[in-house]
Design brief:
The protein is an alpha/beta fold. The chain has one domain: Rossmann fold. Helices cover 45% and strands 14% of the residues. It is built from 8 helices and 7 strands. Strands 3-2-1-4-5-6-7 form a 7-stranded parallel beta sheet, sandwiched between helices. The structure holds NADP nicotinamide-adenine-dinucleotide phosphate. The site of NADP nicotinamide-adenine-dinucleotide phosphate has 29 residues, from helix 1 and helix 6.
Length: 266
């Protein structure tokens, strides 16, 4: 009887709830073994037990606070050394509420460590090994807020713009390596992230918030379709292409030996 080859192991950060836990469900359904990473061991155990029972897959939990250097190093080492890991979902993240001027800098720094430093180090650890193996998938969670800094926290949207830039640069660098990099840019999605930041999702205009199930299913469909950037709610990806083309059209004039005429003093 023909058997389907195992897709390998997916390591998911922020897998105890929300988008990460939903990806864990979908990837288990696709036959992946899982390594689930987050801080809350009890919740990780709950997710793991359910997925083992429901899908019969191997699920390991790895408790780690990704803002703590030693914990982050353990996850990096696992990614760098475990050849069974074929997919990294760089998902753990947080947001902060309020204005920049009024913000609590310790909270902001913690968020930047979680949203930028941790996924960068994890992506490097995974990409290095996967490039040598000639195969692998890295999914980086960005956000549509990276395209709308006028309307959202500059520090959060900036951290997500960083993830988008990193993803695009990784795609260029790894294009012939067999390693796929997908950036996922969700809009507002119904998870605990809002409550954790003290933001009332119910105050959002009607029709603006997606369920986490629909968001993750769309993102995985984007992955299956080979998209480099997936924006789950964007009806026409030609809009994204036009945006990219307009950005790249600036390129010939972005670095030149002479200043633009408008800066020439008479
Ligand atoms: P969530 O429901 O708050 O879940 C966040 C996950 O990250 C949890 O599993 C949490 O688990 C884990 N986590 C938080 N701090 C951590 C730390 N220091 N170390 C390790 N794990 C940590 O958030 P979500 O909405 O699913 O967000 C997931 C990703 O999607 C984030 O990168 C977020 O920026 C992005 N995103 C979300 C939305 C949205 O509207 N929800 C929109 C765009 C992008 P523990 O508490 O157990 O550690």
């Amino acid at each position: 009887m023909a058997t389907t080859a195992s897709p390998g192991t997916a390591l998911i950060t922020g897998a105890s709830t929300g988008i990460g836990a939903t990806y864990a469900d979908r990837l288990a359904r696709r036959g992946y073994s899982l390594v689930l990473v987050a801080r809350d061991q009890q919740r990780l155990d709950g997710v793991a037990a359910r997925l083992r029972q429901q899908y019969g897959v191997v699920v390991e939990t790895l408790q780690a606070d990704l803002t703590a250097r030693a914990d982050l190093a353990r996850v990096e080492q696992r990614l760098a050394r475990d050849a069974a890991i074929t997919l990294l979902l760089n998902n753990a993240g947080s947001t902060v509420e309020g204005s920049f001027v009024g913000s609590d800098m310790d909270k902001v720094e913690n968020m930047l460590t979680l949203n930028i430093t941790a996924p960068t180090r994890l992506a490097k650890a995974a990409a290095g090994r996967m490039a040598v193996a000639g195969a692998g998938t890295i999914i980086n969670l960005g956000s549509v807020t990276s395209l709308l800094p006028e309307s959202f926290s500059g520090t959060y949207s900036g951290s997500k713009a960083y993830m988008l830039n990193l993803s695009i640069a990784m795609q260029a660098e790894l294009s012939t390596s067999g390693v796929r990099v997908q950036a996922v840019l969700p809009g507002a999605t119904r998870t605990e992230i809002w409550e954790r930041a003290g933001i009332d999702l119910n105050a959002f205009p009607p029709g603006m918030v997606m369920s986490v199930d629909d968001m993750v299913d769309a993102a995985l469909s984007g992955l299956d379709q080979g998209e480099a950037v997936t924006i789950p709610s964007l009806p026409d990806m030609a809009d994204w292409q036009r945006y990219t083309d307009a950005r790249l059209a600036l390129q010939p004039n972005l670095s030149r030996s002479a200043a633009a005429p408008r800066y020439n003093k008479s």
